[in-house]
Every structure is written in C-alpha cells, then in structure tokens.
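Q&A FORM
Asked by: J.P.
Topic: structure of Flavin-dependent thymidylate synthase

PROVIDED:
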Amino acid sequence: MPLSSEQQAEIEQQRSVSTQTLRATAPGMEKHLYTAYPVLDHGFIRVVDYMGDDAAICQAARVSYGKGTKSVQNDEGLIRYLMRHWHSTPFEMCEIKLHVKLPVFVARQWIRHRTANVNEYSARYSILDREFYIPAPDHLAAQSVVNNQGRGEALSGEEAQRVLRYLTEDSMRAYDHYEEMISQDGQQGLARELARMNLPANVYTQWYWKVDLHNLLHFLRLRADAHAQYEIRVYADEICKVVADWVPFAFKAFEDYRMGGATLSATALEVVRRMLKGEEVTQETSGMSKGEWREFEGLLG
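REPLIED BY: S.T.
REPLY: Here is the structure written out as tokens.
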C-alpha cells in the first residue's frame, strides 16, 4: 500500500481545513491538493502547494495590474501564441510543489532535470522502510535489439518467474542485512549513512519537488513520452492529469504544440515540400541518414 491508514487520515484532516485568502486559486487544483495518487506498487504523487493559474500566465505576459483576463477566448489565444513561439518566462510565473514517493533508480533519472528545488528523505538521519519496487510480470522485458536504452518483448514462463524471484529475494536479503548492520541490540551498530549503501536501487525514497510550470512541461514532454522508461513515465502521466486541471489552457496548448507536435530539420522540411509537389522521395534521395529517415517516417506515420 502506498499510504498507511494513519497517513491517509492525516491527508483527510489537511483537506478538511480551509482558510480564506486573497491569493489567486485554481479550482481544478484545489480538488487535488494534498490527495495522494498511487503510482507503481508503493509510490505516489501528491500536490502540497501551488501558485498561479492560466490567468497568471496572461497577467505576466501583459504585465497587467489585475488577473490579466481580457476574455476567456483572448487568454486561451494568448497562451497558445506563447506556447507556439516558445516563450518561456510567462509560464515560469506558475509553480507547483509535489510530494513524491519513488524508487531510487527512478529518482536518479528524475534528478537529471536540474531546474527544480528538491529535498529528499534523509537515510543518514532516518531508517528507510522495507519497500521495494517489484515490476508486474507484464513489465519484465528483455533488452531491445534496436534500442540500447529500451525494452523488447516481455519475458514469460520460467524465465519471468526466475527474475521475479531474484528481485524479491535479493531485495529482502539486502534489507535484512541493512537492519542487522544498524541494530542496536547489544551491538555498536554501523552508522545509517554507511549501512544504506547496501540497499538496492529499487528501494523507495521520498522527496519534495518544487518546479515552475515552464520547466515542469519540459519534464513532462520528455518523461510522459511513449519512449520514456515505463517506471518514470507512469509518474509523469499522473502529474499530467493534475496539470490539466490546474492550467487547462496551458496544458491543451502543451499537448498540441509539444506532445502532439513535431520539430523538423531544414532537410526534413524540404523533403515534405518535395512530397507535396508529388515527388517520390526515398532515404537515398532525401539527404538524411538511415536513423533520421526512420524517425521522419515515424513522424509521418
């Protein structure tokens, strides 16, 4: 279970208390505030704070005194213009702070996005829980034969069972030794900051992650992509649901121009022009490498 009954009760208590405020609020985000949404087998994401909304983006772009809203249509059009022309500063006016519980190996991918403020659970000070990410059988896959950092077909039968047994047994054995090393039952005990190095990369950690909307959308463009590793993609997918309710105009523009759109090189754009004129273009006549041509064909479907 991602949350204990005590933790769930604490969240419900937080959600039961409201205060009057003059600050701008987003109704779509208010319904998500503090709620923990399960991810993987023991993880979750939850919003603990936020600032701004669609109107805040327009306010910053227009540098206006009020909310910045001329009309709903004008605001949506402005946001789409900003997104279409890669303006970033107005989107930086919105911020979100998330509480995330995730496996360490996912955290090491996540932390590569260096444009956020992070405070992680300290295994020097506290003892980590006996919680490990063990993939569901349908997510146990062999190495891809065409992509050095991707997955191929799912493992099956005895091989899948063997891998699951290794993952579970090795995780439990490592944690048993971790507990024994820091034991205080008549022993001096190894320092927690040293004992933690024996734990596997699938042990769960937690952090607070605060980021502005511009950098969050960059994170989501990469990590909610179909090519991203499944274990981080499911976190990004869950965050997308929250962002869609928080800043619906901005998220719709993001879906259209970033997630659903594509950037073409000058060479690829010239190939499109030639195709529109009725010319049959092949990889050999395109001026592209085999890899570029394969990606180009993928974009065109």
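FOLLOW-UP: The chain has a mean pLDDT of 91.
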